[in-house]
Specification:
Elements lengths: L1 H26 L7 H20 L8 H22 L5 H33 L5 H20 L9 H19 L4
Length: about 180
């Protein structure tokens, strides 16, 4: 049973992260022709394409992608509930789905920041992957850099952002016991 729970959770979480990455790429206006962006678009377009014909965007916010993320998160908990013989509560599924989307987004931001930090140590800056990571994280890091300038050649903005993310996750866990 644990193996099935692991497999279902992993598959749904990975696809949810790809959907959230698409939303984040669109929101940050990242390079559409980058290989990472192309992978994300191709992995999500079969579902989001038809949804966009029905659900319009609101300004720069792609509502169809957000709804897909919520549906994927709700689908995960529905599949796990059916597998484990749990109770299916539609309102509870929506709430748990929304919190799951938030939690996975914070996890995605954490890992993107970690990847950017590691690449900054070993890369020369010419990678298309690194360029997209820069486009995604720069709106988060530039306000931190204005307050906390580089110290001795070290940019601590990624560290401060990661600490802030973990703080927000802990706050959510304190206020929402099922988070």
């Amino acid at each position: 049973m644990n193996a099935m729970v692991f497999l279902i959770s992993t598959i749904f979480n990975l696809y949810l992260m790809v959907v959230l990455l698409r939303f984040w790429l669109q929101l940050s206006k990242a390079d559409f022709y980058n290989p990472l962006s192309q992978f994300v678009v191709k992995a999500t377009h079969p579902v989001i394409g038809p949804m966009r014909r029905i659900i319009p965007s609101v300004g720069s916010i792609d509502v169809a992608t957000l709804i897909l993320a919520l549906l994927v998160a709700m689908g995960k908990y529905l599949a796990l509930s059916l597998l484990l013989g749990g109770n299916i509560n539609p309102l509870g599924m929506i709430i748990i789905g929304a919190l799951s989307v938030l939690k996975e987004f914070l996890t995605l931001v954490f890992w993107v920041l970690i990847m950017r930090a590691i690449l900054s140590w070993v890369s020369q800056g010419g990678s298309p992957f690194e360029y997209v990571l820069h486009q995604l994280t720069e709106p988060l890091l530039s306000p931190i850099r204005r307050v906390l300038p580089p110290m001795g050649g070290m940019d601590l903005s990624v560290l401060v952002a990661i600490i802030g993310l973990k703080f927000v996750e802990m706050l959510l866990a304190d206020f929402l016991p099922f988070y």
